[in-house]
Amino acid sequence: MTVGRFAPSPSGRIHLGNILCSLLAWLSARRKGGRVVLRIEDLDTARCPRRYADQMEEDLRWLGLDWDEGPSVGGPDGPYYQSERTALYQAALDRLKAMGLVYPCFCTRAELHAASAPHREDGQVIYAGTCRNLTAEQAAERARQRAPALRLRVPDEAWAFTDGHMGPYRENLARDCGDFLLRRSDGMFAYQLAVVVDDAAMGVTEVVRGADLLDSTPRQLYLYHLLDLPAPSFIHFPLLLDANGRRLSKRNADAGLDDLRDRATAAEILGKLAYLAGFNPSAEPKTAAELLPDFDWDKVPGADIRIPEGLF
Ligand code: GLU
């Protein structure tokens, strides 16, 4: 049985990109007769207050996207808020520690950027390995000054997988990514660890998300491997861009549902999004249920999708 999921980070009102993501995850799972889980990714509790999560649930319902397990419907694999699942992340971290793969990192943000490490295309710093080989004494000394973050030691190995939409993808963990964070210095667990623990614990078999997370997948597959957990299949879809070719963000108010909901029905919004994403022959209104029979990943383009000025 296919189990898909919505995994929103409620740091603001849902925008068109999040809506397309939820719609595709829903269609992809439901088309196969599968189930859908809603998990609220509120690890950053300061940025993700509960009222945003509640609003997001309400918005998803208004859009006609339903789910079988989640915060207000319950289910066997709860709690469904990441902020309430930290004991599970700690247990996974302890397993990785026991394998000798975790080390404390004392680098400040300024030090990370100053180290002559290369940057990824998306601007993230590839960790230079500054704290990788500290002795126990050095680490203890530094821990007196500053609480460390925790990083996973990655091998100089390629991790490859075939994305369900984007095709083959590979990354060398050491060269293209570097030792990555498992827990920040303030104690907040990293997305990469939490998402793997949760998707596995919730029996998710299919992850549908934007192509901006494609390059997170090798890291996540490496964690599945280390933790001996079954990995789901991954389907990454092209990003939505505004009329100027910029990525949508929660700061981009035009794309937020708060003002859209006042002037459009759910079917109008979904019909237009589905048209842009190739699975509605015209921009005519369609409910999620009406889009279901003809949904096929082959219709969805591979390149980013620009929203024409004035469409919404
Ligand atoms: N919570 C993430 C987001 O809203 C999605 C993570 C994922 O799909 O793996 O961007």
Features:
binds glutamic acid, 2 domains, single chain, alpha/beta, Rossmann fold, Glutamyl-tRNA Synthetase, domain 3, 312 residues, 15% strand, globular, two-stranded parallel ribbon, 3-stranded antiparallel β-sheet
Kindly describe this structure.
This protein folds into two domains: 3-85 and 199-306, HUPs (Rossmann fold); 86-194, Glutamyl-tRNA Synthetase, domain 3. It has eleven helices and eleven strands. Helices cover 34% and strands 15% of the residues. The radius of gyration is 20 Å and the shape is globular. With 312 residues, the protein is of the alpha/beta class. It binds glutamic acid (GLU). Residues 7-9, 41, 195, 209, 213 line the site of glutamic acid.
